């Protein structure tokens, strides 16, 4: 059973460009969470999605950031007009249909560098 | 809002026992989780406490006291490979995790 997959693993963007980060949850998992981690810090919750629904986006910046989890295909975290402060590691995690209350399975992360 | 406090660094020797404490302030608390992260890689789940008391999984144990808003992770028979960052995380509604800043554990020979 493949784990959570994220791609790309590393992404370099110039200021003002768009970044698209993809996350494929574990097979059978229908809940996806996105977290951001700055160097030497803990992970910060961004958004929680189920298939075709955003359940909680309280951690997402109001502007430039969006997320989706379509019926088919991976979950996408999209950052428009990136700025240097967006440079971070972005992790997604998935959990089974019962929810991620007890355990979440994390992907390897996407390291975004904005130049 | 939510906040968690845990020590930033802990050092111990191989074979020893180490305890990493975590205090939290939050609303909508479901439980306390612990995750391990090596060198900025994927965090991996270690344990979850939804009720007061001790949970044991091999060399790792975790404790929770809801009334004190306090928990700890206990690592026994430390090995070099245990050198990593350890995060406590409060579990809220929907399974949303609010993480502490992490404790960097260094295991010395």
Question: Explain this structure to me?
Answer:
The complex is a heterodimer of chains A (115) and B (109). Chain A is an all-beta fold. Chain A has strands at residues 5-7, 10-13, 19-24, 31-37, 43-50, 53-56, 65-68, 75-79, 88-95, 105-106, 110-114. In chain A, strand 7 and strand 8 form a beta hairpin. Chain B is an all-beta fold and 109 residues long. Chain B is 0% helix and 58% strand. In chain B, strand 9 (84-91) and strand 10 form a beta hairpin. The termini of chain B are far apart. The model of chain B has no long low-confidence stretch (mean pLDDT 95). The interface between A and B is medium-sized, with 28 and 24 residues.
Indicate the low-confidence ranges of chain A by residue numbers: none
Helix count of chain B? Answer: 0
Q: What is the C-alpha radius of gyration of chain B, as a whole number of Å?
A: 13 Å
Number of strands of chain A: 11
Biggest sheet of chain A: strands, sense, closure?
A: 7 strands, mixed
Q: What is the percentage of strand-forming residues of chain A?
A: over 45%
The oligomeric state of the chains shown is heterodimer
Average per-residue pLDDT of chain B, rounded, comes to 95
């Amino acid at each position: 059973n493949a784990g959570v997959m994220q791609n790309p693993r590393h992404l370099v963007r110039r200021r003002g460009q768009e970044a698209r980060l993809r996350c494929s949850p574990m097979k059978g998992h229908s809940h996806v969470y996105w977290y951001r981690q700055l160097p030497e810090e803990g992970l910060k919750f961004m958004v929680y999605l189920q298939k075709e629904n955003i359940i909680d986006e309280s951690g997402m910046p109001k502007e430039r950031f969006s997320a989706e989890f379509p019926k088919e295909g991976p979950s996408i975290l999209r950052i428009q007009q990136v700025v240097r402060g967006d440079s971070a590691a972005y992790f997604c995690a998935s959990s089974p249909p019962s929810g991620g209350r007890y355990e979440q399975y994390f992907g390897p992360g996407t390291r975004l560098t904005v130049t | 809002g939510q906040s968690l406090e845990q020590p930033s660094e802990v050092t111990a020797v191989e074979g020893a026992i180490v305890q990493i404490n975590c205090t939290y302030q939050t609303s909508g608390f479901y439980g306390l989780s612990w995750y391990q992260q090596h060198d900025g890689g994927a965090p991996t789940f270690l344990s979850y406490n939804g009720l007061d008391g001790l949970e044991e999984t091999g060399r790792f144990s975790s404790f929770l006291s809801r009334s004190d808003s306090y928990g700890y992770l206990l690592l026994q028979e430390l090995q070099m490979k245990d050198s990593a960052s350890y995060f406590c995380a409060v579990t809220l509604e929907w399974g949303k995790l609010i993480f502490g800043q992490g404790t960097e554990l260094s295991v010395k020979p």
